[in-house]
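Hey team,

Sharing the Alkaline ceramidase run so nobody has to redo it. Sequence (186 residues) first:
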Amino acid sequence: MTLKYEMQLLDELPMIYSCCVFVYCLYECFKHKNSVNYPLLFVLITFSVIVSIIYLNLKEPVFHQIVYGALVSIIVLRSVYIVLWVYPWLRGLGYTSLSVFLMGFFFWNVDNIFCDKLRGLREKMPPVVGAVTQFHAWWHIFTGLGSYLHILLSLYTRTLFLKYRPKVKFVFGIWPILLVEPPKKH
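Structure output:
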C-alpha cells in the first residue's frame, strides 16, 4: 500500500495481461492444429487495452480488483472443467494451484483491508517478525507459486491432448517440473 501510483501500475496492469494469456491458453489447449484463434486473441487484446485506458483514467483500485477477479474466475471455471471432466487425474495439481493462489489472494486482501493497522503493529515488532507480516509480499510469493503450478497444469493438459506423455517430477523432492516424452510410435 506504499507504492506510488506509477509503480502500482507496473504491478497491477501486468496482472490483467498475464490473466488474459492464461485465458487464451486454457481455451486453446484442446485444438489439433498449430493455429491462432484470432477472434479470441482480438477480444483479449482489446479487453486489455480498454481496461488499461479505463484504469489509467479512473485511478480506482477497486476497478482493477473487480476486473482481475473476473479474469481469475474465468480461469478457475475453465480449470475446474478440465480437472473434473476432461482429465480428472489432474485434480491434485489443479486444486493445489488454486489453493496456493487463493491463499495469496487472501493475504492480498488482508493487506488491503488492514494496511494501516498492520503498519502500526509492525513498528512495535522486532524487525524479523515485522518482515514476515508483509502480506503484500506473501501475496506475490503465493500467487507466483500458484500461477507456476497453473502453468504446469496448462502444459500438462496441452501435451496430453497432443498425445505426448507428460510426467511431473520434483527437483530436490520439492519443486515440480514437467518432463515430456514424445508419443509412442505405433
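The chain has a mean pLDDT of 90.

Ping me if you want the raw files.
A.
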